[in-house]
Amino acid sequence: MKKAFPLKWVFPLLLSGISIQITSFANAAEESALEKLESMSLQQLMDIEITIATKKEKKSSTVAAPVFVISAEDIRRSGVSNVPEALAMAPGVQVAQLGPHDWAISIRGFNALLSNKLLVLVDGRIVYSPVNAGTYWRDIQSISLEDIKQIEIIRGPGGTIWGANAVNGVINIITYSAMETEGAQLVVGGGSEQRAFTRLSYTHRLSQELAIRAYANYFKVDDAKGLSGQDNQDGGDGWRSGFRADFQDQQNNVHIDGNWYEHYLNYNSEHTILEPPYRQISNERPGFRGGHIMARWNRLISADNQWSLQAYFDFTKRNDPILQVAVEIFDIEFNHQFTWLDRHTISWGGGYRQISDDVSSTLTLTMQPAKKATDLFNFFVQDEISLDQNKRWLLTAGSKFEYYSLGNLEVQPSLSLIWNLSDKISLWGSISHAVRTLTRDQNDLKIFAFRRLLMMDTPVKVQGVGGEDLDAEQVTAFQVGWRAQLPGQVMSKVAFFYNRYEDIIKTEMLGFPLLNEDGLLSVQSQLDNLAEAQSYGVEVALDWAFADWWRNYFSYSYFRLNSRHVSDRHLFFPDLNEVNTPEHSASLRMQFNLTDTIELDAWFRYTDEIKVVEALIDDYVDLDMRLGWQVNSEIEVSLIGQNLIQTQHKEYDDEFFYPQASRIERGVYGKLVWRF
To answer: 385-420: string of b/e by CB count within 10 Å (b at 16+)?
Structure first.
């Protein structure tokens, strides 16, 4: 039983801001997964099992890397409305919202609408775009938060396990197994910015070993204000439906899932085109759709010997004024882990991936050839060695070998060491190497248009050519850190890092702009490895409980990046975005159990000033609040306030291809979750 919060503090806290959320709980006879998380001790939280480090469940306290886990309980009590908002809980993760559908999210720098050095997965399925290099967060905007078991984040390279593009970090969004849910669940809500949302799911237990869950979601978001104060008319809606089936016995765990989503957003933006009047106002409602089917089989041969086989097919299609593309991906991989000579835990595996895309020409850009298929082959091996009989010292060495038909054979090794001084304290360090591979737009983008380039009102026609000897971007990362459970119910995690980047790809101008037959300036350009950079920083996470009714989560990040060009050739974009990440950022989440049935949560966030391209974004402080009431064992009601300190603020600026950034406005919404 939770200890009650002294009621004399209720009214002063409520006066500081109001937010209510209502969530449902499982049957009283059986403790729910959320209740288990809520009642965990700090030591149990340190030992949460994760799969992001080795593709096998492993205690987070034994991983020689800065791992952060956002639990289902964290998501519920934070009051966030989607996955991108939830990621702001993690230190070292920059989350900047551009508008109702778009976010710029990165780990340790190089932030952009499509951050090409961050690998994102959902249940182990890669959602990183192979055409444009990055993650379209609008594609996973409709994932139901109630389906998420936890979000695992590794800051720093993860190439040895996950392969290319895991340069600065990996995010894996893990959903509940159908064996972990039961009955029906209805979620409804809406408000000022989150206009409306609903979700209905139902789990049917076919037998003791087999269960299936089906679901359908819908959401609608409001328009936002543009950076100049105009109405962007960029709201929209979307839906997602799907299923997940799980079979589990003593030796086998089989998981099959699939879904289909469609998102529609209002488009009222100005784009540069190559025909008079050279500007196009889009008053459209383009659609973004996609789906997948995935199967995974985990086989337990013995306690020290297991393997897994996973395969999926993924389809996405985008249709907007700038980019119209359809992509099909087939991926299959095999992993095996076993113990050898008692002190060696060996993991190895390999896989194959085929990417087929079809890019339609628009008035803004053209790719040649329009259709292309590429192949990727990979193999990895890793050995975790116990250096002493008590397994206090663990040395892990391994490498990924990857061949991509757009590039060369890439090798991504890593070496790490962790020293578990006790069950409560561990020190760790690592050296790792990772790459960002070439993408279609770097090889085959031929013609595109820019406005505000070379001080011209009319567009500049750029004819691009991929570099003949273009190499993948490289990073070598050095990290040290510790995890400790301190006296006074305090858990601390600290990580220091230094990254060295080489072969950063930039666009160079070939010759001088010339006036072509259409009366436009025409420029020849080429991609090449023209820059390098260094970054360093520290990340801190603290979790402490003042009392049974009061818990706090604090994080702080310091980040610096310095870059330089390795050539005197003229670049289209001399700014390497080295300053698009705040130098300082901090987060404080406070959870209060006011009574046995009423919860109050407050989340303060500070973001230092940011420079994006040529614009300066001022530093800002924001506050989200949530007040939740457990009506009974089946229903919970809530009201959430977001961005309460300012009526609106700017988090990011326009990008050349997607000039649709907005001011993020204050919002309030209510939510009801009912399990039956």
So the answer is: bbeeeeeeebebebbbbbebebbeebebbbbbbbbb
| Non-local CB neighbours of 163 within 8 Å, separated by 6+ positions | 119, 378, 380, 400, 402, 412
Q: Rounded CA gap, 215 and 203, in Å?
A: 9
Joined together, the tokens standing for residue 532 give: 């390098």
Label residue 549 exposed, middle or buried (CB < 10 Å: 0-12, 13-18, 19+).
Answer: buried
Cis before residue 369, ω within 30 degrees of 0? yes
**Are the CB atoms for 260 and 240 separated by under 8 Å?**
yes
| CA–CA dist 363, 366 (Å, integer) | 8
- What 3 state SS string does 518-582 have? CCCEEEEEEEEEEEEEEEEEEEEEEEEEEECCEEEEEEEEEEEEEEEECCCCCECCCCCCCCCCC
Q: Is 33 helix (H, G, I), strand (E, B) or coil?
A: helix
Identify residue 488 by its one-letter amino acid code. Answer: G
Q: Which residues contact 381 (CB under 8 A, 6 or more apart)?
A: 346, 347, 348, 398, 399
- Of 245, 79, 225, 84, the closest CA to residue 153 belongs to 84
The reported pLDDT for the residue numbered 620 is 94
CA distance linking residue 628 with residue 147, whole number of Å: 19
Average pLDDT (525-532) is 86
CA 41 to chain centre: 27
CA dihedral (436, 439, 443, 449) positive or negative = negative
- Per-residue pLDDT tens for 550-603? 999 999 999 999 988 887 776 666 555 566 889 999 999 999 999 999 999 999
- Tell me if residue 444 falls in helix, strand or coil: helix
Residues contacting residue 6 through CB under 8 Å, at least 6 positions apart:
none
The residue among 157, 139, 107 whose CA lies nearest residue 436 is 157
φ and ψ at residue 375, rounded to 5 degrees:
-125, 145
User: How far, in Å, CA of 16 to CA of 34, rounded?
Assistant: 27
Backbone angles phi, psi at 36, to 5 degrees: -65, -45
- Of 201, 190, 199, 272, the C-alpha closest to 235 is 190
How many residues make up the chain in this entry? 676
**In angstroms, what CA-CA distances link 341 with 307, 336, 346, 382, 421?**
19, 16, 11, 15, 24
Instruction: Tell which residue, 38, 39, 139, 45, has the closest CA to residue 83.
Output: 139
The tokens for 569 are 């050739």
Q: For the segment 79-94, what is each residue's pLDDT rounded down to a tens digit?
A: 999 999 999 999 999 9
Instruction: Name the residue among 226, 255, 225, 230 with its Cα closest to residue 243.
Output: 255
Structure tokens at 437: 């591979």
Whether the ω angle into residue 277 lies within 30 degrees of 0, i.e. cis, is: yes
